[in-house]
Amino acid sequence: MTILFGILAFIFTFLGGFFAIKFKDKLHLILGFSAGAVMGVALFDLLPESIELAKDYYSISSITALIAVGFIIFMILDRALVIHAHDDDSCENVNHQGFHGALTLCIHSFIDGFAIGLAFKISEVVGITVAIAVLVHDFSDGINTVNYIFKNQGKTKSAYLWLIVDALAPLLGVISTYYIAVSQNTLGLILAVFCGFFLYIGASDLVPESHHKHPKLLTTIMTILGMIVLYVVIKFSA
Fold first, then answer.
1. Which domain does 228 fall in, by range?
2. What's the longest Cα–Cα distance across the chain?
3. How many Å apart are CA 204 and CA 208, to the nearest integer?
4. For residue 22, is it within any domain?
5. Which stretches of 23-155 are DSSP H helices?
6. What 8-state DSSP symbol labels residue 114?
7. Is 168 among the domain residues?
8. Do the domain assignments include residue 66?
9. pLDDT tens-digit profile of 194-206?
10. Under a CB-based contact definition with an 8 Å cutoff, are residues 166 and 108 in contact?
11. Which of 36, 44, 125, 182 is 20 to 30 Å apart from 93, CA to CA?
12. What is the DSSP letter of 153?
């Protein structure tokens, strides 16, 4: 069953990225929606799930502290690897930030699959719950991966390449867990750290980028819509 969910994760991720490529002329609206979706996943899915899995071993304050740690870690990595802004079109490293952002999301997608596999080791109920949560935002992951490439002047060919890598990542993550075992509380802590990652991606990158040189009203509405959609989907899939 874990492999099945890995294949579904591949499909959902690819469809999301294909949607972003097909409608790249509306990129600012898609970015706005993605920002809301990413933060919605963090607040409505990863946060409660991490508390539920780890609450018997760690206090809620410890779990939320790990969310802050995840935010700080991602911020440091982002600023360390993305050394300068790319406002100058002549910059020879113009795709550096897009590469970094797409790579980060691919790593996250791998850990998504890793989380599915580990969750099924705990129990089938926990596994299905985590898998559904992953599928809910995999579509958005595909969109975000493509957006990272396009908003940093990447080409369509490059976007498709990274989309395929991102779509394969969760399937590979699922497969890797056949050789690894992690406890329920440890999985909860991992999800808390990724909650921090998502909050940083949404608030510090996608929201500002979606508003850059575009009408703020429409992109604001799309961001709110993204959060609402994720809330509704997660609530009814729980």
1. 2-16+32-86+93-237
2. 54
3. 7
4. no
5. 27-41, 47-54, 60-81, 96-122, 124-150
6. H
7. yes
8. yes
9. 889 888 878 877 7
10. no
11. 36
12. T
Are 35 and 221 contacting, i.e. CB atoms less than 8 angstroms apart?
no
Q: How far, in Å, CA of 43 to CA of 192, rounded?
A: 10
Q: What is the pTM of this model?
A: 0.68
Question: If you count them, how many residues does the chain have?
Answer: 238
- When divided into structural domains, the chain yields a total of 1
Residue 129, burial from CB neighbour count under 10 angstroms (0-12, 13-18, 19+): middle
Alpha-carbon gap, residue 217 to 220, rounded angstroms: 5
Cα→Cα distances 10→3, 141, 142, 194, 197, Å:
11, 11, 9, 20, 21
Residue 207 token pair: 């929201």
Question: By C-alpha distance, which of 24, 58, 46 is closest to 201?
Answer: 46
Between the alpha carbon of residue 87 and those of residues 152, 214, 226, the distances in Å are: 10, 16, 28
| DSSP SS3 for 12 | helix
Report if residue 143 sits inside a domain. Answer: yes
* Cβ–Cβ under 8 Å, residues 100 and 81: yes
